[in-house]
Amino acid sequence: MNKAETIERLLPEIGSPRASGEHFAPSNIALCKYWGKRDAELNLPVNASLSVSLATLGTRTRVEPIDAEQDQVYLNGLLQAPDSRFADRTRRFIDLLRVNQPQLAFRVDTHNNIPTAAGLASSASGFAALTRALVEAFGLSLSPTEQSVLARLGSGSACRSLFDGFVEWQMGQREDGLDSHGVALPASWPQLCVGLVKVDAGEKPVDSRSGMQRTVETAHLYQSWPLQASSDLARLHEAIDSLDFALLGSVAEQNALSMHATMIASWPPLLYWQPQSVAMMQKVWQLRREGLALYFTMDAGPNLKLLFEAASRDAVLAQFPGIEVVEPFAAGAA
Ligand code: 2P0
Asked: What is the pLDDT of residues 145-183, one digit of tens each?
Protein backbone atom coordinates (compact mmCIF):
# COMPACT_ATOMS: atom_id res chain seq x y z
CA MET A 1 0.00 0.00 0.00
CA ASN A 2 1.34 3.49 -0.78
CA LYS A 3 0.63 6.92 0.68
CA ALA A 4 -1.80 7.90 -2.09
CA GLU A 5 -3.93 4.81 -1.39
CA THR A 6 -3.97 5.61 2.33
CA ILE A 7 -5.06 9.17 1.55
CA GLU A 8 -7.88 7.84 -0.64
CA ARG A 9 -9.20 5.82 2.29
CA LEU A 10 -8.77 8.72 4.72
CA LEU A 11 -10.11 11.42 2.42
CA PRO A 12 -12.24 10.11 -0.43
CA GLU A 13 -12.85 13.68 -1.63
CA ILE A 14 -10.47 16.60 -1.44
CA GLY A 15 -11.74 19.93 -2.73
CA SER A 16 -9.82 23.08 -3.58
CA PRO A 17 -8.10 24.99 -0.81
CA ARG A 18 -10.52 27.64 0.40
CA ALA A 19 -8.23 29.89 2.34
CA SER A 20 -5.01 30.09 4.21
CA GLY A 21 -4.45 27.99 7.32
CA GLU A 22 -2.20 28.61 10.31
CA HIS A 23 -1.53 26.38 13.30
CA PHE A 24 0.93 25.48 16.04
CA ALA A 25 2.01 22.00 17.13
CA PRO A 26 4.32 21.09 20.02
CA SER A 27 7.57 19.21 19.80
CA ASN A 28 7.65 15.90 21.68
CA ILE A 29 10.22 13.82 23.54
CA ALA A 30 9.77 10.04 23.56
CA LEU A 31 10.14 8.21 26.87
CA CYS A 32 9.70 4.90 25.01
CA LYS A 33 11.26 5.38 21.58
CA TYR A 34 10.09 4.70 18.05
CA TRP A 35 12.99 2.92 16.37
CA GLY A 36 12.37 0.77 13.31
CA LYS A 37 9.59 0.54 10.72
CA ARG A 38 7.54 -2.37 9.59
CA ASP A 39 6.51 -0.30 6.56
CA ALA A 40 8.96 2.37 5.40
CA GLU A 41 6.59 3.98 2.87
CA LEU A 42 3.82 4.59 5.44
CA ASN A 43 6.07 5.13 8.50
CA LEU A 44 4.44 2.23 10.34
CA PRO A 45 6.49 1.36 13.43
CA VAL A 46 7.78 -1.96 14.69
CA ASN A 47 6.83 -0.93 18.25
CA ALA A 48 4.43 1.37 20.07
CA SER A 49 6.04 4.46 21.64
CA LEU A 50 5.14 7.00 24.32
CA SER A 51 6.09 10.66 24.47
CA VAL A 52 5.47 13.88 26.31
CA SER A 53 4.69 17.00 24.30
CA LEU A 54 6.69 20.14 25.02
CA ALA A 55 3.75 22.53 25.52
CA THR A 56 4.60 25.85 23.86
CA LEU A 57 7.89 24.73 22.30
CA GLY A 58 7.30 23.67 18.73
CA THR A 59 6.38 24.86 15.26
CA ARG A 60 3.91 27.39 13.88
CA THR A 61 3.11 26.96 10.20
CA ARG A 62 1.03 29.05 7.78
CA VAL A 63 0.03 27.86 4.34
CA GLU A 64 -1.55 30.05 1.69
CA PRO A 65 -2.55 29.20 -1.89
CA ILE A 66 -0.61 31.43 -4.30
CA ASP A 67 -0.67 32.14 -7.99
CA ALA A 68 2.76 30.76 -8.85
CA GLU A 69 4.41 27.93 -10.75
CA GLN A 70 5.78 26.25 -7.66
CA ASP A 71 5.62 26.30 -3.86
CA GLN A 72 7.53 28.93 -1.93
CA VAL A 73 8.81 27.40 1.28
CA TYR A 74 10.15 29.62 4.07
CA LEU A 75 11.85 28.40 7.23
CA ASN A 76 12.20 30.91 10.05
CA GLY A 77 11.72 33.74 7.52
CA LEU A 78 14.25 32.47 4.96
CA LEU A 79 13.20 31.24 1.51
CA GLN A 80 14.47 27.67 1.08
CA ALA A 81 16.02 26.52 -2.19
CA PRO A 82 13.49 24.32 -4.06
CA ASP A 83 15.96 21.41 -4.07
CA SER A 84 16.74 21.66 -0.33
CA ARG A 85 15.75 18.69 1.84
CA PHE A 86 13.31 20.84 3.83
CA ALA A 87 11.50 22.24 0.76
CA ASP A 88 11.43 18.82 -0.88
CA ARG A 89 9.85 17.07 2.14
CA THR A 90 7.33 19.90 2.53
CA ARG A 91 6.37 19.79 -1.15
CA ARG A 92 6.02 16.00 -1.19
CA PHE A 93 3.75 16.14 1.85
CA ILE A 94 1.50 18.79 0.27
CA ASP A 95 1.43 16.66 -2.91
CA LEU A 96 -0.58 14.09 -0.95
CA LEU A 97 -3.47 16.55 -0.78
CA ARG A 98 -3.26 17.99 -4.30
CA VAL A 99 -3.33 14.72 -6.20
CA ASN A 100 -6.13 15.97 -8.42
CA GLN A 101 -4.88 19.55 -8.62
CA PRO A 102 -1.14 19.35 -9.29
CA GLN A 103 -1.08 22.96 -10.52
CA LEU A 104 -1.88 24.27 -7.02
CA ALA A 105 0.97 26.17 -5.38
CA PHE A 106 1.37 27.31 -1.78
CA ARG A 107 3.44 29.70 0.19
CA VAL A 108 4.48 27.86 3.35
CA ASP A 109 5.89 29.75 6.33
CA THR A 110 7.35 27.60 9.09
CA HIS A 111 8.62 29.06 12.34
CA ASN A 112 10.29 26.93 14.99
CA ASN A 113 10.44 28.46 18.46
CA ILE A 114 12.59 25.62 19.71
CA PRO A 115 15.85 27.33 20.60
CA THR A 116 18.31 26.26 17.91
CA ALA A 117 20.88 25.96 20.66
CA ALA A 118 18.85 23.16 22.26
CA GLY A 119 19.63 20.93 19.28
CA LEU A 120 16.11 19.52 19.17
CA ALA A 121 14.81 17.97 15.97
CA SER A 122 11.72 19.66 14.62
CA SER A 123 10.29 17.25 12.06
CA ALA A 124 7.65 16.00 14.53
CA SER A 125 6.21 19.42 15.38
CA GLY A 126 6.83 20.57 11.78
CA PHE A 127 4.70 17.91 10.10
CA ALA A 128 2.03 18.13 12.81
CA ALA A 129 1.72 21.91 12.34
CA LEU A 130 1.76 21.56 8.54
CA THR A 131 -0.99 18.94 8.77
CA ARG A 132 -3.19 21.20 10.89
CA ALA A 133 -2.58 24.20 8.61
CA LEU A 134 -3.42 22.21 5.47
CA VAL A 135 -6.54 20.68 7.04
CA GLU A 136 -7.77 24.22 7.70
CA ALA A 137 -6.81 25.54 4.26
CA PHE A 138 -8.54 22.66 2.43
CA GLY A 139 -11.51 22.79 4.82
CA LEU A 140 -11.16 19.07 5.58
CA SER A 141 -13.21 17.46 8.28
CA LEU A 142 -10.66 15.23 9.95
CA SER A 143 -10.71 14.32 13.63
CA PRO A 144 -7.49 14.79 15.64
CA THR A 145 -6.94 11.02 15.34
CA GLU A 146 -7.27 11.17 11.55
CA GLN A 147 -4.95 14.18 11.46
CA SER A 148 -2.47 12.12 13.45
CA VAL A 149 -2.62 9.40 10.75
CA LEU A 150 -2.02 12.04 8.07
CA ALA A 151 0.90 13.65 9.95
CA ARG A 152 2.51 10.20 10.35
CA LEU A 153 2.85 9.99 6.57
CA GLY A 154 5.15 13.05 6.76
CA SER A 155 7.24 11.83 9.69
CA GLY A 156 6.47 9.01 12.10
CA SER A 157 6.99 10.91 15.33
CA ALA A 158 4.74 13.74 14.05
CA CYS A 159 1.67 11.62 14.84
CA ARG A 160 2.43 12.16 18.56
CA SER A 161 2.69 15.96 18.17
CA LEU A 162 -1.04 16.30 17.38
CA PHE A 163 -1.71 16.05 21.12
CA ASP A 164 -0.54 17.66 24.37
CA GLY A 165 0.75 15.90 27.47
CA PHE A 166 1.56 12.19 27.44
CA VAL A 167 0.83 10.55 24.10
CA GLU A 168 1.00 6.91 23.11
CA TRP A 169 1.56 6.08 19.46
CA GLN A 170 -0.40 2.89 19.03
CA MET A 171 1.38 0.85 16.40
CA GLY A 172 -1.79 -0.62 14.90
CA GLN A 173 -2.23 -3.80 12.88
CA ARG A 174 -3.76 -2.67 9.62
CA GLU A 175 -1.84 -2.70 6.38
CA ASP A 176 -3.19 0.76 5.47
CA GLY A 177 -2.05 2.19 8.83
CA LEU A 178 -5.39 3.82 9.65
CA ASP A 179 -5.09 2.41 13.20
CA SER A 180 -1.50 3.64 13.72
CA HIS A 181 -1.73 7.06 15.38
CA GLY A 182 -1.25 9.04 18.57
CA VAL A 183 -3.64 8.75 21.52
CA ALA A 184 -3.55 11.33 24.32
CA LEU A 185 -3.37 9.81 27.80
CA PRO A 186 -5.78 11.27 30.36
CA ALA A 187 -2.94 12.00 32.79
CA SER A 188 -1.16 15.03 34.13
CA TRP A 189 2.16 15.40 35.96
CA PRO A 190 2.47 19.07 36.96
CA GLN A 191 5.87 18.58 38.64
CA LEU A 192 7.53 17.02 35.59
CA CYS A 193 10.40 18.99 34.05
CA VAL A 194 12.44 18.37 30.90
CA GLY A 195 15.87 20.04 30.65
CA LEU A 196 17.42 20.46 27.21
CA VAL A 197 21.19 19.99 27.33
CA LYS A 198 22.96 20.98 24.15
CA VAL A 199 26.10 19.08 23.23
CA ASP A 200 26.03 19.87 19.51
CA ALA A 201 23.19 21.55 17.60
CA GLY A 202 24.65 20.86 14.14
CA GLU A 203 23.00 18.63 11.57
CA LYS A 204 23.42 14.95 12.37
CA PRO A 205 25.51 12.86 9.97
CA VAL A 206 22.89 10.08 9.59
CA ASP A 207 19.18 11.00 9.70
CA SER A 208 16.69 8.93 11.72
CA ARG A 209 15.10 7.40 8.66
CA SER A 210 18.36 5.87 7.36
CA GLY A 211 19.59 5.14 10.88
CA MET A 212 16.50 3.07 11.68
CA GLN A 213 16.75 1.18 8.42
CA ARG A 214 20.42 0.38 9.00
CA THR A 215 19.69 -0.87 12.52
CA VAL A 216 16.79 -3.07 11.43
CA GLU A 217 18.81 -4.56 8.57
CA THR A 218 22.20 -5.11 10.22
CA ALA A 219 21.98 -5.28 14.03
CA HIS A 220 21.25 -8.74 15.45
CA LEU A 221 20.72 -6.98 18.76
CA TYR A 222 17.66 -5.28 17.25
CA GLN A 223 15.75 -8.56 17.64
CA SER A 224 15.43 -7.84 21.34
CA TRP A 225 14.16 -4.28 20.83
CA PRO A 226 10.40 -4.93 20.34
CA LEU A 227 10.31 -6.92 23.58
CA GLN A 228 12.23 -4.23 25.49
CA ALA A 229 9.93 -1.51 24.11
CA SER A 230 6.75 -3.34 24.98
CA SER A 231 7.89 -4.02 28.54
CA ASP A 232 9.04 -0.38 28.93
CA LEU A 233 5.72 0.90 27.62
CA ALA A 234 3.81 -1.11 30.23
CA ARG A 235 6.11 0.15 33.00
CA LEU A 236 5.75 3.76 31.84
CA HIS A 237 1.98 3.46 32.06
CA GLU A 238 2.42 2.16 35.59
CA ALA A 239 4.75 5.08 36.46
CA ILE A 240 2.34 7.65 35.01
CA ASP A 241 -0.68 6.12 36.76
CA SER A 242 1.08 6.20 40.14
CA LEU A 243 3.21 9.35 39.58
CA ASP A 244 6.27 7.23 40.41
CA PHE A 245 9.10 9.46 39.18
CA ALA A 246 11.96 7.05 39.87
CA LEU A 247 10.17 4.44 37.75
CA LEU A 248 9.44 6.92 34.95
CA GLY A 249 13.01 8.20 34.86
CA SER A 250 14.71 4.83 35.08
CA VAL A 251 12.53 3.25 32.39
CA ALA A 252 13.01 6.23 30.04
CA GLU A 253 16.77 6.22 30.54
CA GLN A 254 17.12 2.47 30.06
CA ASN A 255 14.88 2.60 27.00
CA ALA A 256 17.03 5.32 25.39
CA LEU A 257 20.26 3.45 26.16
CA SER A 258 18.79 0.21 24.79
CA MET A 259 17.87 2.00 21.56
CA HIS A 260 21.40 3.39 21.31
CA ALA A 261 22.82 -0.09 21.97
CA THR A 262 21.00 -1.38 18.87
CA MET A 263 22.36 1.57 16.86
CA ILE A 264 25.92 0.91 18.02
CA ALA A 265 25.51 -2.77 17.12
CA SER A 266 24.61 -1.83 13.51
CA TRP A 267 27.05 -2.03 10.63
CA PRO A 268 28.59 0.35 9.77
CA PRO A 269 28.23 1.35 13.43
CA LEU A 270 25.92 4.19 14.27
CA LEU A 271 27.19 6.19 17.22
CA TYR A 272 25.41 9.51 17.71
CA TRP A 273 27.26 10.27 20.95
CA GLN A 274 30.15 12.66 21.30
CA PRO A 275 32.67 12.64 24.15
CA GLN A 276 30.67 15.44 25.77
CA SER A 277 27.48 13.31 25.61
CA VAL A 278 29.19 10.59 27.62
CA ALA A 279 30.58 13.15 30.07
CA MET A 280 27.03 14.46 30.63
CA MET A 281 25.65 10.94 31.17
CA GLN A 282 28.37 10.28 33.74
CA LYS A 283 27.54 13.55 35.43
CA VAL A 284 23.87 12.52 35.70
CA TRP A 285 24.88 9.14 37.15
CA GLN A 286 27.22 10.81 39.68
CA LEU A 287 24.48 13.27 40.76
CA ARG A 288 22.07 10.37 41.13
CA ARG A 289 24.56 8.52 43.36
CA GLU A 290 24.63 11.70 45.45
CA GLY A 291 20.86 11.51 45.86
CA LEU A 292 19.47 13.77 43.12
CA ALA A 293 16.43 12.29 41.36
CA LEU A 294 17.73 13.03 37.86
CA TYR A 295 17.52 10.89 34.70
CA PHE A 296 18.09 11.48 31.00
CA THR A 297 16.84 10.41 27.63
CA MET A 298 18.50 10.88 24.22
CA ASP A 299 17.30 10.71 20.64
CA ALA A 300 19.15 10.16 17.37
CA GLY A 301 21.73 12.79 18.21
CA PRO A 302 24.36 13.78 20.79
CA ASN A 303 22.14 15.92 23.06
CA LEU A 304 20.65 14.91 26.41
CA LYS A 305 17.15 15.64 27.65
CA LEU A 306 17.13 15.66 31.45
CA LEU A 307 14.11 14.40 33.37
CA PHE A 308 13.47 15.70 36.88
CA GLU A 309 10.72 17.13 39.07
CA ALA A 310 10.17 20.78 40.01
CA ALA A 311 11.56 20.23 43.53
CA SER A 312 14.98 19.46 41.99
CA ARG A 313 14.95 22.35 39.55
CA ASP A 314 17.38 24.62 41.41
CA ALA A 315 19.80 21.77 42.06
CA VAL A 316 19.72 20.74 38.39
CA LEU A 317 20.19 24.32 37.15
CA ALA A 318 23.16 24.75 39.49
CA GLN A 319 24.81 21.73 37.83
CA PHE A 320 23.70 22.53 34.26
CA PRO A 321 23.63 26.34 34.12
CA GLY A 322 21.77 27.98 31.25
CA ILE A 323 19.83 24.94 30.06
CA GLU A 324 16.30 25.42 28.77
CA VAL A 325 13.72 23.88 31.12
CA VAL A 326 10.25 22.91 29.89
CA GLU A 327 7.33 22.06 32.17
CA PRO A 328 4.95 20.12 29.92
CA PHE A 329 2.06 20.22 32.41
CA ALA A 330 2.57 23.59 34.11
CA ALA A 331 -0.54 25.76 34.32
CA GLY A 332 -1.15 27.38 30.96
CA ALA A 333 1.59 25.32 29.30
CA ALA A 334 -0.61 23.42 26.91
C1 2P0 B 1 11.37 8.97 18.78
N2 2P0 B 1 13.06 9.25 16.96
O3 2P0 B 1 10.57 8.14 19.21
C4 2P0 B 1 12.59 8.43 18.03
C5 2P0 B 1 13.76 8.27 18.95
C6 2P0 B 1 14.49 9.40 17.00
C7 2P0 B 1 14.97 8.59 18.12
O8 2P0 B 1 11.07 9.49 16.04
O9 2P0 B 1 11.53 8.45 9.25
O10 2P0 B 1 11.98 11.76 12.29
O11 2P0 B 1 10.32 10.61 9.62
O12 2P0 B 1 9.40 8.47 10.54
O13 2P0 B 1 9.94 10.51 13.12
C14 2P0 B 1 12.80 10.33 14.79
O15 2P0 B 1 12.25 9.72 13.69
O16 2P0 B 1 11.51 9.42 11.48
C17 2P0 B 1 12.27 9.67 15.97
P18 2P0 B 1 10.64 9.23 10.16
P19 2P0 B 1 11.33 10.47 12.64
O20 2P0 B 1 11.22 10.20 18.97
From this structure: 999 999 999 999 999 999 999 999 999 999 999 999 999
Q: Which atom of ligand 1 has the smallest separation from the CA of 127? A: 11
Q: Does domain 3-184 have CATH number 3.40.50.1970?
A: no
- Cα distance between residue 234 and residue 218, in whole Å: 27
Note the CATH number of domain 192-326. 3.30.70.890
Q: Which stretches of the chain drop beneath a pLDDT of 70?
A: 115-119, 121, 332-334
Pairing type for strands 192-197 and 166-170 reads unpaired
Distance 188 CA to ligand 1 centre (A): 24
Instruction: From 59, 208, 259, give the residue whose CB has the most ligand 1 atoms within 8 Å, as the site to mutate.
Output: 208
Helix (H) / strand (E) containing 169: strand 166-170
- Residue 333 is predicted with a pLDDT of 54
Q: Is the pTM here over 0.85, yes or no?
A: yes
Domain boundaries along the sequence of the chain = 3-184, 192-326
CA atoms of 314 and 320, how far apart (whole Å): 10
Is the minimum distance from the CB of 182 to ligand 1 under 6 angstroms? no
The pLDDT value recorded for residue 118 is: 58
